[in-house]
């Protein structure tokens, strides 16, 4: 297992959940948090701890987004009209790497980010290598012609661990799809319970 994979799965153990619902996650075998004394360090969390855990869970799920960038998403969610927690989820789901992941063109959010960063994805016919790019309603996302037969893409398409949500359209034969609309929290197929309302409480303290 590479250092990157070890680090990724440590997030699962630290949070005590199988964040991406993967069969390979070590949390399925060992639920203790990382560290020499992980088995003995479980304590009842404070309100602050619960809010922090909700934030770390949401950040981790989307490929461990950096704190500075994640806070910008919160600030933008506050600025927009409507429910702040729903706005936050919509902004995260509009990320290009997340859309690629939802389309099942990559097995994990980490793989989706790398796939985008390496220039394998076109948005409305133009190559885009910015994983945080905000996809708009009805944007056409497709895999570059030369990249359509890559093993990582074919393996992801055939992976049966999850389904494509209804706010995404995808033709896996053509490796082309469309972002239909921003989802509500209830539309997003999280393998674990997400609590963006607690994230809002954390930042608004």
TrEMBL record:
PROSITE patterns to which the protein is assigned, alphabetical: RIBOSOMAL_S4, S4
InterPro entries given in the database record: Ribosomal_uS4 (IPR022801), Ribosomal_uS4_bac-type (IPR005709), Ribosomal_uS4_CS (IPR018079), Ribosomal_uS4_N (IPR001912), S4_RNA-bd (IPR002942), S4_RNA-bd_sf (IPR036986)
Keyword Ubl conjugation: no
Domain RNA-binding S4 span(s) in chain numbering: 94-158
The keyword Ribonucleoprotein is assigned to this record: yes
Keywords: Ribonucleoprotein, Ribosomal protein, RNA-binding, rRNA-binding
GO CC annotation, single: ribosome
Small ribosomal subunit protein uS4 N-terminal domain mapped to chain residues: 3-93
Record NCBIfam families: PRK05327.1, rpsD_bact
Function: One of the primary rRNA binding proteins, it binds directly to 16S rRNA where it nucleates assembly of the body of the 30S subunit. With S5 and S12 plays an important role in translational accuracy.
Family listed: Belongs to the universal ribosomal protein uS4 family.
Subunit details: Part of the 30S ribosomal subunit. Contacts protein S5. The interaction surface between S4 and S5 is involved in control of translational fidelity.
Protein name per its UniProtKB record: Small ribosomal subunit protein uS4
Native source organism of the sequence: Belnapia arida
Gene assigned in the entry: rpsD
């Amino acid at each position: 297992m590479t250092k990157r994979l070890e680090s990724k799965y440590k997030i699962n153990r630290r949070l005590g959940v199988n964040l991406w619902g993967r069969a390979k996650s070590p949390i399925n075998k060992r639920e203790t948090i990382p560290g020499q004394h992980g088995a003995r360090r479980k304590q009842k969390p404070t309100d602050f701890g619960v809010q922090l855990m909700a934030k770390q869970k949401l950040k981790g799920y989307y490929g461990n987004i950096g704190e500075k960038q994640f806070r910008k998403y919160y600030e933008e969610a506050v600025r927009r009209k409507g429910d702040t927690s729903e706005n936050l989820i919509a902004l995260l789901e509009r990320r290009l790497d997340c859309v690629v992941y939802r389309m099942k063109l990559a097995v994990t959010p980490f793989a989706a980010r790398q796939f985008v960063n390496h220039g394998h994805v076109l948005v409305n016919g133009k190559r885009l290598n910015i994983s945080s790019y905000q996809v708009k309603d009805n944007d056409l996302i497709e895999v570059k012609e030369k990249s359509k037969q890559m093993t990582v893409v074919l393996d992801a398409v055939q992976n049966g661990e999850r389904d494509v949500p209804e706010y995404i359209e995808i033709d896996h034969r053509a490796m082309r799809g469309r972002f239909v609309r921003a989802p509500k929290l209830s539309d997003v197929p999280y393998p674990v319970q997400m609590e963006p309302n607690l994230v809002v409480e954390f930042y608004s303290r």
